[in-house]
Amino acid sequence: MVRKKRTQQLFHTYFLEWVELYKVGAVRSVTLDKYYISHQRLTELVPELKLCDLDRRAYQQLLNDYAKDHEKQTTLDFHHQIKGAIMDAVDEGLIECNPTRKIIIKGKKPREKKPKFLNQFELQLLLKQLNLQPTINWDWFILLVAKTGMRFSEALAITPNDFDFSKQMLDISKTWNYRGTKGSFQPTKNPSSVRKIQLDWQLAMQFSNLTRNLDPEQPIFISRRVFNSTINHRLAVLCRNANIPIITIHSLRHTHASLLLFAGVSIASVARRLGHSSMSTTQETYLHIIHELENQDSDKIIRHLATLV
């Protein structure tokens, strides 16, 4: 009787209960916010859909309606979040058959992508534009990200205690929740993101001087609430001044990784430096670069074999 009553429950209500039961306290606040956004979309798209009516046809229509205003990858991300709750409902016997089976993912035509990374010459032009003052500013932040490949939230969380200047190492063990009104430390994206990054001697010396008189346990870049758009705006100004493609802070991470790969650094080493959970993430993200390097290797192999005759 109770199960029959629960099958009459609205799907968006079940999804919200599922999020609060299984996701609150288990995922980062940034990820949790995405689940709540997905719930909001469900209330807009299928406000009257009950669990008992959620079959494959109804679910495909839901995804089709969502895809009208979203790109294919965004629709796929939405599907993955919703599917988690649906599969639990199937396991509970609230839905008879898996409605997500053989689902087709659609979406709007992707917008023209902005450049993901700079080449070495363009990066050098960018760094020449930096106004590296005797005290910490956002240009120092841009330099640090460019030379370490850190994520935006990881770089914001850096404190003087995270530097080991004698070994030229930087300890990445936390992130900064810049989306909160007050801001706070929080865990890294995944366990693999906890890592130590080797610094070049010049960068180590520069930050040794910059952080000497700062509170050892406080973020060196944070004095008030920080917005991603503020730093990206500064970076855009520098890019325009250098007459190079305008990129974002996250693109500096891609630039760092791509230059290491082109320099012959192994995928395993790049994955560890970036804090990727596995090498497959690195391979998928930089597949185009890996293919280009494989083509260069093929040319080297042929030239070498030709000398054996």
From TrEMBL:
Signal peptide: none annotated. InterPro entries: DNA_brk_join_enz (IPR011010), Integrase-like_cat_sf (IPR013762), Integrase_catalytic (IPR002104), Integrase_recombinase_N (IPR010998), Tyrosine_recombinase_XerCD (IPR050090). Residues 113-300 form the Tyr recombinase domain. The keyword Repressor does not apply. One of its GO terms (biological process) is DNA recombination. GO terms for molecular function: DNA binding. Keywords: DNA recombination, DNA-binding. CDD domains: INT_ICEBs1_C_like. It holds the Pfam family Phage_integrase. PANTHER family: PHAGE INTEGRASE-RELATED, PROPHAGE INTEGRASE INTD-RELATED. Belongs to the 'phage' integrase family. This is Site-specific integrase. It comes from Enterococcus asini. The lineage of its organism: Bacteria, Bacillati, Bacillota, Bacilli, Lactobacillales.
